[in-house]
Amino acid sequence: MSNRITSLFGIKYPIISGGMVWCSGWKLASAVSNAGGLGLIGAGSMHPETLREHIQKCKAATNKPFGVNVPLMYPEIETIMDIIISEGVKIVFTSAGNPKLWTKKLQDNGITVAHVVSSSKFALKCQEAGVDAVVAEGFEAGGHNGKEETTTMVLIPQVRKAITIPLIAAGGIGTGEGMLAAMALGAEGVQMGTRFALTQESSASQEFKDLCINLKEGDTILSLKKLSPTRLIKNEFYNEVQAAEDKGASVEEMRALLGRGRSKKGIFEGDLVNGELEIGQISSLIDSLPSAEKVVEEIVAEYNIRIENILSTKPLF
Ligand SMILES: Cc1cc2nc3c(=O)[nH]c(=O)nc-3n(C[C@H](O)[C@H](O)[C@H](O)COP(=O)(O)O)c2cc1C
Q1: Could you tell me if the CB of 68 is within 6 A of ligand 1?
Q2: Is there an atom of ligand 1 within 6 Å of 267 CB?
């Protein structure tokens, strides 16, 4: 398959593994890139020097294109960007912030920039800011999420209408059929988080992965709406958040309840009771922990089978 996304990033398949705190280090990113997709290292949970180490290891593990995801609310953002530039990273996916802030500087240093949004209004702002591609992420997604709760099904066609630059769909995609649906709605590639978080190469703890592959529909929910809406598994920590929100807790009280290091505790250290457990709705469809290469192969095979089935089906009328 070749389209604007495969050409933009120099990859075989328009399949991207999203940057994910505590999951997507060099092992996962290089495995996805070696399989023909685009692997992203998630800088969001890394100290600057840890990120440098992951970039260097990724360069050693693959000669294919890979990128780095940088949530822009990162406190050491200047240092992070300096490391990305000095290490010669060629692709950056920014998120959680204003795309105007870093796009030009990154592009001036030969970097291709994509930015993640959850509305067509912000997709248009990305286009105006000159980004090379937009990731539109629906509310099914794991991790931080849009306040408006727009689903991928509704979001992608609207973003498609709003912008002309390359469009990547994210949120609730974990199969080749899901990818095909996103492409039918106007996307030119997909970014998957949850599916790749639940692979051998993901650095999430075994406890977290085992819990996630046993989740059922309805076991995740958009929570922490007063701080930054985040899709979480309903565990004890979520119950505490809910109780506090029901009592009308202030932003400061919610911040104190969240504390520091909650997602590390949950995802990386496997504290399934007190940790913040971020994963997407599509986890309820996932029941195995294959290698990242197998995931890419399966997605491509499912996509091809489904498109052939559709093409050989008679029109409705
Ligand atoms: C555990 C986890 C951590 C995530 N961390 C980040 C992050 O640090 N930065 C970011 O831009 N997106 C983050 N995301 C979102 C993913 O990059 C991706 O866009 C999203 O997972 C896509 O939806 P899906 O989970 O339905 O596949 C995270 C998602 C998960 C599941």
Answers
A1: no
A2: yes
Contact, 148 vs 159, CB < 8 A? no
> pTM of the entire structure?
0.97
Q: How far is the CA of 19 from the centre of ligand 1 (A)?
A: 6
Strands (E), the chain: 15-17, 38-42, 66-71, 91-95, 112-117, 133-137, 143-144, 167-170, 189-192, 220-223, 230-233
Return the pLDDT at 248.
93
Work out the average pLDDT over 138-155: 95
pLDDT score of 255 more than 80: yes
d(CA 317, CA 311): 15
Among 167-171, 226-230, 236-240, 312-316, which is the least confidently predicted range?
312-316
The residues pairing with 134 across neighbouring beta strands, listed in sequence order, are: 115, 167
Ligand 1 nearest-atom number relative to CA 194: 25
Ligand 1 pocket check for 141: Cβ under 6 Å: yes
Question: Ligand 1: does its nearest atom lie under 6 Å from the Cβ of 142?
Answer: yes
Largest CA distance in the chain: 60
Residue 192 Cβ inside 6 Å of ligand 1? The answer reads: yes
What CA–CA distance (Å, rounded) separates 42 from 139? 20
Q: What's the average model confidence in pLDDT over 73-86?
A: 95
Given the DSSP bridges, would you call strands 38-42 and 15-17 parallel, antiparallel or unpaired? parallel
Of 90, 45, 108, 38, the C-alpha closest to 71 is 45
Structure tokens at 183: 């492409």
| Strand pairing class (133-137; 167-170) | parallel
pLDDT of residue 249: 93
Average pLDDT over residues 228-237: 96
How many angstroms separate the alpha carbon of residue 101 from the centre of ligand 1?
A: 21
What is d(CA 57, CA 55) in angstroms, rounded to the nearest whole number? 5
Residue 221 has pLDDT above 80, yes or no: yes
Q: 18 CB less than 6 Å from ligand 1?
A: yes
